[in-house]
Amino acid sequence: MRLQSAFLALSLLTTLTSAHPQEGGAIPAPPTGGSTDPSYSCPSSCTPPSCQCASTAIPGGLSKDKTPMFVTLTYDDSVQVELFETIMAVHNRTQNSNGCDLPGTFFVSTQYTDFWLVQRTYGLGSEVACHTINHFDLRNMSAAAVTAEIDGCRKAINAFSGVPASKLTGFRHPFLSFSPTSMEAVQKAGFEYDSSIVLDPNTQAFWPHTLDYGMPYNPQPCTNCPPGPQWKLPGLWEIPMYALLDKDGKVWASMDPIINPQLNDYDKALDNLKKTFDVHYEKKLPMGLYQHISQLVAWVAFGDDKRKKQDLLTAFFAYTQQKSDVYFVTNQQLLAWIKKPVPTDQMSTFLPCILPATDKSNKEICDGIDNNGDGAVDEGLVLSCQITPTSNTRSCFGCPAVNPNVSNPVPDHGNALKAIPADGCPNLGSWDPAAGSCLDLKRPQAVAKSSNGTQG
After folding, report:
1. How far is 173 from 146, CA to CA, in rounded Å?
2. pLDDT for 356-410, tens place per residue?
3. What are the start-end ranges of the E strands in 6-62?
4. pTM given for the model
5. DSSP letter at 427?
6. Which helix (H) or strand (E) holds 289?
7. β-pair type (170-171, 193-194)
8. What is the secondary structure of 114-155 as a DSSP string?
9. How many CB atoms lie within 10 A of CB 422?
10. Positions of the region Disordered (predicted)?
């Protein structure tokens, strides 16, 4: 599925959400040391899908040669026009092994966010997760304040972006800074997973796991945290963020590939990304490429070196695709596989490509997709919301009277459209907010790659 026609339509729309500096996109320091805690103990009774011990072993006892290689692409902070166009333009230059464009996981903070673009991101096959409303450091906040930030974010995204509540399952702490209070709040709020802890893939090659019996490592940065094995939060998964490595195999960065355009060091950055991938591939440990939205937009969307930077990511994607068993997945898809591992030769059934509902016979509904295939997305159905003289957004679900905030995450929005059900629509149906019902719209059929990487 290619999105050029959608981009053309999008460029014709009035851009309402101005580019704002990120509310605090400081890049966290890479992990120092790779110590693990020998006191960690997890019983054999801890079994998927409800419980998973922290382990360096491949889930399900699969051998490396039968295990798919997973890569996750995650993005933090507010979603704006520059972000959406840039990321989607990069993602659709490479196809996944299942025949779809590469998906991502977007940890959205709602301040400055264009809610309609979040809806589009979800509709095009990526995962939407939560990153608070205001992007504050949660370490020294009360449990009530933390809950208001994280749960308010989820409520606002659900109400104004039309993402089903049951699909908003993930959370990442701003600044990757957390405390026992904040982690407990994530658990109590009902999120399935947190993804905030950075590990060294050389020495802490732990697969995603639940926190029923704590962790075999001592997470940092953390305020007033007990030793890792004492962090017992039953049912909450942790999807570690694995540090990037340099070409010598040493820790290079936690997030955001380090690129200095003045030094023209794109080849160096590409070599480092390849090295990181090689280390993960040798273990079949999932790899992640984690980026702040502001950093990505700054070094991809603007400047004379735009093409070099887009080509850098495309070259890295192409390098990974030399292996026929590589799958780019969302965090939710990664967890689904860990809960029920299947070998590579069953991945086409486990992870089929489901393309957006686009066909000339379809009715155009406000779902973030060009349903009738005429090159325009949700034409005539999206509301432009000027909330204050300096704050604006777009939404299919009414304009909020004030900006969504911790005290009022779903302000009055004069909603004439119907909110999407908590579980979305069954059997790949599409929600029509005007009719308040699910529709069975026609979808194109994906063509997956064969084992040699060609279409077939």
Report:
1. 10
2. 999 999 999 999 999 999 999 999 999 999 999 999 999 999 999 999 999 999 9
3. none
4. 0.92
5. G
6. strand 287-292
7. parallel
8. -HHHHHHHHHTT-EEEE--SS----TTS-HHHHHHHHHHHHH
9. 11
10. 20-40
